[in-house]
């Protein structure tokens, strides 16, 4: 139920999304399990990347030539919403800083789950903002 | 008094400002009441827009041709300060992402009030950063 | 010990880093003591600035011609981590908005300490993200 989500939980989820940018920008692929569940789905289809269904798949994809990472990932506008079924949806916005100081804006739609090691994302979908 | 403002309150106000960007960027004008009080004043005079004094006026203005919205609104640097008179001032910074990946930076100066439905903004003023 | 750091502490540290951008962008050099301890070290060597070892030195440096401030400082991706020795490390990312709407992305590595006046930074190091 929604009341089961404390402010401490919500704060932890905020920092989880904050941590994501540090891991990606430092290419700490071996640490992605600090943010995602082992079987997390990542949907970056909007960036012409294949769906991945585990942290291992994601790490392999992102370490490879198919992934073109911006210079930096900045997380903003995090809103945590518990659903009636006990799951937790999170929306946020990202700024990707590219070469030449131009940026892209994207929307993240996540599902967060409580694990024995703390909050993790079991699902993340990213889409680029366009006119 | 300042002590009446809990961390839960401050956290809620942070997420209120985060939500704002999602509503505006999705043009959810009918949902602006999730962020503003019915009689909220919005001061975007610095962007050559008229003062509005209600959510209905704001929604009408923003849905119309006079408003030129950037591609995305990102909220950062939120600081919540209770005043001695019981009102709550909030300052924050916004990044507006424009076409071509260039951005503008603005300052938001808000007043937040507690309502039966949660925290809402009764006043917002936005100014563009310039040299 | 890590357990000594409450969520209220972590939230306060988030707002401390948020406040920083407001002070710098408003050139409130006389208020830097709201963010830093009197003897704070600031390392912006990566920006070709000399190390400073007090708020007074920092204020003098930043008010002078050697410092070239961007138009705006936006703080994101704050993660607070208590160390085993009781100190508190904070990492975050900053977006500096420059003239022409182009941005730079930087990494902040801080040490926060609890004082009688609240949390302050005793150490800050900033580095620019580059390819």
Model regions low in confidence, pLDDT < 50 over at least 5 residues of chain A:
none
State mean pLDDT of chain A (0 to 100 scale).
95
SS-derived structural category of chain A = alpha+beta
Strand order of the largest sheet of chain A: 1-5-4-3-2
| Biggest interface, residues from each chain | A-B, 22 and 22 residues
What percent of residues of chain A are in strands? 35-45%
Using the alpha-carbon principal axes, give the shape of chain A.
globular
Oligomer: homotrimer
Helical residues, percent of chain A: 10-25%
Could you give the distance between the termini of chain A?
A: 37 Å
Keywords:
131 residues, homotrimer, alpha+beta, globular
Compile the SSE list and pairings:
Three copies of one chain form a homotrimer.
Chain A lengths: L6 H19 L10 E8 L11 H9 L8 E11 L5 E10 L5 E13 L2 E11 L3
Parallel strand pairs in A: 1-5
Antiparallel strand pairs in A: 2-3, 3-4, 4-5
Question: Mind explaining what this structure looks like?
Answer:
The first copy, chain A, contains two helices and five strands, in the order H-E-H-E-E-E-E. Chain A starts with 6 loop residues before the first helix and ends with a strand. In chain A, 21% of the residues lie in helices and 40% in strands. In chain A, a hairpin with a 2-residue loop joins strand 4 (103-115) and strand 5 (118-128). Chain A is of the alpha+beta class and 131 residues long. Chain A has a five-stranded mixed beta sheet, covered by helices on one side. Chain A has helices at 7-25, 55-63, and strands spanning 36-43, 72-82, 88-97, 103-115, 118-128. Chains in contact: A-B, A-C, B-C.
């Amino acid at each position: 139920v929604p009341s089961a989500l404390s402010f401490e939980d919500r704060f932890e989820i905020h920092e989880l999304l904050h941590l994501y940018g540090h891991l990606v920008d430092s290419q700490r692929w071996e640490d992605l399990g600090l943010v995602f569940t082992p079987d997390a789905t990542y949907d970056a289809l909007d960036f012409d990347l294949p769906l991945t269904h585990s942290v291992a798949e994601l790490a392999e994809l992102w370490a490879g030539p198919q992934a073109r990472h911006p210079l930096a990932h900045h997380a903003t506008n995090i809103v945590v919403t518990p659903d009636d079924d006990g799951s937790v949806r999170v929306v946020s916005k990202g700024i990707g800083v590219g070469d030449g100081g131009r940026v892209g804006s994207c929307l993240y739609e996540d599902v967060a789950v409580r694990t024995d090691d703390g909050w993790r994302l079991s699902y993340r979908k990213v889409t680029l903002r366009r006119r």
